[in-house]
Amino acid sequence: MTNDLVRPEKFFANRFGMSDSIFERVIGSALERRADYVDLYFEYRNAEAVSLEESIVKHTSKSVSHGVGVRVCAEDRTGYAYSDEVTIDRMQLAAEAARAIADQRGARPAAIRIGQPVASHALYDLDSTPLEVPLEERARLLGEIDRVAREFDPRIVNVMASFAAEQKIVMVVNSDGQVAADLQPLCRLNVTVIADDGKNRQVGSFGGGGRVEYRHFIDSERWREYTLNAARQAIVNLDAVDAPAGEMVVVLAPGWPGILLHEAIGHGLEGDFNRKGTSAFAGRIGQQVASPLCTVVDDGTMPNRRGSLNVDDEGTPTSRTVLIEQGVLRGYLQDRMNARLMKMAPTGNGRRESFAHAPMPRMTNTFMLPGESTPEEIIKSVRNGLYAVSFGGGQVDITNGKFVFSASEAYLIEDGQVTRPVKGATLIGDGPDVLTRVTMVGNDLALDPGVGTCGKDGQSVPVGVGLPTIRIDGITVGGTRA
User: Fold this and answer.
1) What average pLDDT does this structure show over 56-80?
2) What distance in Å separates the CA atoms of residue 482 and residue 474, rounded to the nearest whole number?
3) Helical segments of 72-197, H only
4) 154 backbone dihedrals φ, ψ, rounded to 5°
5) Is residue 458 pLDDT above 80, yes or no?
6) What does the pLDDT look like over 29-45, one tens digit per residue?
7) Contact between 438 and 472 (Cβ < 8 Å)
8) E strand or H helix that includes residue 21
9) In Å, how far are 140, 141, 144, 218 from 137, measured between CA atoms?
10) Cβ pair 280, 400 in contact under 8 A
11) Is 8-238 CATH 3.30.2290.10?
12) What is the per-residue pLDDT across 322-366, written as a single tens digit (0 to 9) for each?
C-alpha cells in the first residue's frame, strides 16, 4: 500500500477531524510561556502477530492503538504529555501539562502558521503490506518452518517460530509551521530451534525482516534460509567445546556482529550523552578515536531496511551521517533539541517508541564501511584466536564505554584455520579502545537480515547493524577454561 493510496495527513483529518487551525490553536497554547519549540506527534498503529511452538500455532494477536504526544522544549528542559484520545480537548490538556513541565522563558516565536510540508524520502512504498496476507497463510508458513527444521536433524526437539507485522501512520506538526507525515510498514520473521542429544541441550536462532512485503520471505525462500541457519547453529553448538579465556585476537564475521559496533560505539556517539559530557567521546570531534582502517556511518536512508525511515519521529528527513572517518571522529547523532543546544544540525536521528514517549537521539542503520582485505586473508593471518559469527545479549556503560557481549556462535582459529566450535565465549572491552585495535578490515560488508531492536531509557526502536569481517587484536575473551 503506497503513500499515494493512504495520505497520512488526510487520514488524521478524516478520522480525527484534525486541521491546520486546530494545530495552530494547540501549539499556540503550548507557547504561552514562551517556550523555544513545540511539536505534536500523531500515531495510528495496526499490529498483528502469530507464533508456533511444539508444531502448533499457539498464539495470535491483533491490536490497534492511536494517540498524540505534545512536546514543549525550553532551553534544556522538555515537557512531554500524551493522550490516547485524539481530540482537541485532550490535546489542549496535554499541551498545558507539557508547558507546565518545561516552564521556562525563551524568545516567543511569531504567530504560528501551519502548512509547510517537509520533503521526505520514498524508501518503502509497497504494493501491499504483510497485514493484508491472510492469517491462515502466515500460519502455514510457520508450519513449513517447523517441518524443515525438524527434518534437518533428528536431535532437534522443538521449534519456535513467529511472524509479526505492523503498519504505523504518523504525522508531526511543529511550531516552525512544518508538517511531516509517513506510512511505515514493518515485519519480522523469527526462528528458534532447540537441539538435544541426551547429554546437552543447545539453542539456535535466526530471523529477518524490514519494511518489506510478505513475498520478501517467500519468493527467494528466505524463510528456509532462516530456518536452516537456526537449525545448523543449534546442532553445531551441541559439539562445542568450552571457550578459552584471556586476551587474544578476535575476528568478527560480517553482518550481525555489527551489534558490537552498535553498542560499544554507536550509543556513545548519540548527541544527548555528548551534550551532557557523559559519553567517553564527548568533546573529541576531530580527534583520532579508532584505527585509520575504520570508517563508521549511520544511514537511515537505505531502502526497505528495518532501521530506515523517510522522516524521523520529529519530522526531520533521515540522512547518511559519517561518525568516524578513517579513525577520526567527525560527528554525533542528533535530534532537534540536542542539535540546537550544541549548535549543530539535526541528523534525522530523533526517535521514539510510540506517541507515549518523547523523542531522543537514536541510531538507524549503523555499520562500518568495507576495507581491502579478503575474509580468507584475515583468518589466515591469525595463529590462535576466536572467530565470532553471531552474538546474543550484550550491554554497555555509556560513561566509560565498557561492554560485555555473549557469543551465540563462535569458533577457534588455529594456525590460520577456523576449527572447533566453542560455547560460553564473552567479549569484554571498552568502546573507545576496541576500534583502535582493529588491524584488518574485510571487503565483505554485510548488513544484518533485519532483526535488530535497540533499547534506551526504557524505549525500544527497530534498528539495523552491519560489519565486514574485521580483525581485532588483544581483546579480552571471557570463557570457561584458561
Assistant:
1) 94
2) 16
3) 88-102, 135-152
4) -65, -15
5) yes
6) 888 777 889 999 999 99
7) yes
8) helix 20-30
9) 5, 6, 11, 11
10) yes
11) yes
12) 999 999 999 999 999 999 999 999 999 999 999 999 999 999 999
Can you read off the three cell numbers belonging to residue 126? 509497497
- How many C-beta neighbours within 10 Å does residue 78 have? 18
Q: Distance between CA 465 and CA 445 in Å, rounded?
A: 11
Q: 329-346: string of b/e by CB count within 10 Å (b at 16+)?
A: bbbbbbbbbbbbbeebeb
Residues of the chain with pLDDT > 90, as a percent, come to: 83
Rounded CA separation 30/43 (Å): 20
Q: How far apart are CA 277 and CA 321, in angstroms?
A: 21
Residue 147: pLDDT band (50, 70, 90) is very high
Residue 105 has pLDDT above 80, yes or no: no
In terms of Cα–Cα distance, which of 30, 32, 106 is closest to 69? 30
Do residues 107 and 42 lie in contact, with contact meaning Cβ atoms separated by under 8 Å? no
Return the C-alpha cell found at 434.
576496541
- Residue spans in the chain of domains classed CATH 3.30.2290.10: 8-238
pLDDT tops 90 at residue 275: yes
Task: Answer positive or negative: Cα dihedral of 84, 85, 86, 89.
Answer: negative
